[in-house]
Design goal:
3 helices, flat, 74% helix, 72 residues, mainly alpha
């Protein structure tokens, strides 16, 4: 059976938790900018996607340098 099992969402090492934090943080940033600071939705999405891409780039550099490992 294909799909996501509940154990897939709770397990993992530092890599999975950092990825989750970056993605959830960027999504929450959209809502914070839109409703907290009353910024245009398109500008909020632009800022949030930039933060997401920068976060993923930093994680990629950590993986390349060997400071973070991916556990299966």
């Amino acid at each position: 059976m294909s799909g996501i099992k509940p154990s897939d969402l709770t397990g993992g090492g530092a890599f999975r938790w950092v990825i989750r934090a970056v993605v959830i943080g960027s999504l929450l940033l959209v809502f914070l900018l839109r409703y907290g600071f009353d910024i245009n939705i398109f500008l909020a999405i632009l800022v949030s996607s930039t933060v997401l891409l920068l976060g993923l780039l930093i994680i990629w550099f950590l993986l390349i340098s060997g400071r973070m490992k991916v556990r299966h």
